[in-house]
Design goal:
332 residues; elongated
Length: 332
């Protein structure tokens, strides 16, 4: 194999050899790939690709090799090796990762936080909690999102402290993280921020309340769904549709369209989680378009289109368990 590897490299197809080694998941190819680093001069792109392949092939020699590259002076390779080590942090790499999390390079630190957020290990959570000592809002927002992806509820008190800062984007990121965690301790802060403040922060708090729920949250969402600010009202109505809460009788201002909105929201509430997100995003865009059009001269034609949509929906989903209870019974 070593002569073959050298031949592959001479022809510029080391990446193909590494890719096939990954496809077969053959640990015996690891030593031959490792020999490429000290003996052969490769481009940064090829070296990075081979390192990525090696990080997926579990072999005892891979981590020491990536550690050695992470300590080199080459700025790109050392950071690529650091990101790959963050995929599966171990006690041998913890010190290096903690050191790199303190880097003054914001973009590199944020990317490293994202890698640690995908590593489902206790050590990754420990490193992310330590990163909460940073002062930069961009990095703290990324750390909050990473801790939410790790489902780390013990970090909720530290995340709540971040809401005391005045940075709007940081507050939005933290509210999103708290909503994803679904911890009731975040409900009072979300209620407070949903009532007053900048519109983007209020919308983030409203979205978080749709996941935190509770009686006070539902009451506030119902009140905000009738707000004068269209962005706030739309966010509250979308939040209510996610949890199946009570909606204002008139959403579009056209009876047939309001009926279609009610039916479709009932259908959305029963969708599986994987399909609900894209469907809700498309539905929100449709609602905004309908509200705008209902204020113009096309109001009558939109009403007829909504009536046809209600009949088509009822016909297409007749007897479907996903729409059970969504259609009003016909009176004789």
């Amino acid at each position: 194999l070593p002569p073959v590897v050298r031949l592959f490299e001479a022809r510029g197809v080391v990446c193909e050899f590494a890719r096939r080694a990954m496809q077969h998941a053959d640990p015996s190819t690891v030593p031959h790939l490792l020999r490429l680093f000290p003996r052969r001069r490769m481009s940064v792109e090829t070296t990075a690709f081979v390192m990525a392949i090696l990080s997926d092939l579990r072999h005892p020699r891979v981590v020491p090799t990536l550690l050695r590259i992470a300590r080199q002076k080459h700025p790109n390779l050392r950071w690529i090796a650091t990101f790959l080590l963050a995929k599966r942090p171990t006690s041998a790499t913890a010190k290096l990762l903690a050191e790199r999390l303190r880097t003054p390079l914001k973009e590199r630190a944020i990317r490293l936080v994202h890698w640690l957020g995908g590593a489902k290990t206790a050590l990754a959570v420990t490193l992310l909690r330590a990163a909460l000592r940073r002062k930069e809002p961009e990095i703290l927002g990324a750390v909050a999102e990473a801790l939410a992806s790790q489902r780390d509820k013990p970090s909720v008190p530290a995340l709540l402290k971040l809401l005391r800062r005045r940075d709007a984007k940081l507050r939005q990121a933290v509210l999103g993280a708290l909503g994803n965690l679904g911890d009731p301790r975040a409900r009072p802060a979300a209620l407070r921020l949903a009532r007053r403040g900048p519109v983007p922060t209020r919308i983030a708090a409203i979205t978080a309340l749709s996941r935190l729920q509770g009686k006070r949250a539902m009451a506030l969402l119902k009140r905000l769904s009738r707000a004068r600010n269209q962005a706030i009202a739309g966010a509250a109505q979308s939040a209510l549709s996610r949890v199946g809460g009570p909606l204002p009788k008139s959403v579009i201002g056209i009876r047939s369209c309001d009926e279609y909105v009610r039916i479709y929201r009932c259908y959305l509430a029963k969708l599986p989680a994987a399909a609900k997100g894209p469907a809700e995003a498309a539905f929100d865009k449709m609602l905004k378009a309908w509200k705008t059009a209902a204020k113009g001269p096309a109001k009558a034609s939109i009403g007829r289109a909504c009536a046809m949509a209600v009949r088509a929906f009822a016909k297409a989903f007749a007897g479907n368990p996903m729409t059970r209870g969504c259609f009003k019974p016909r009176t004789p």
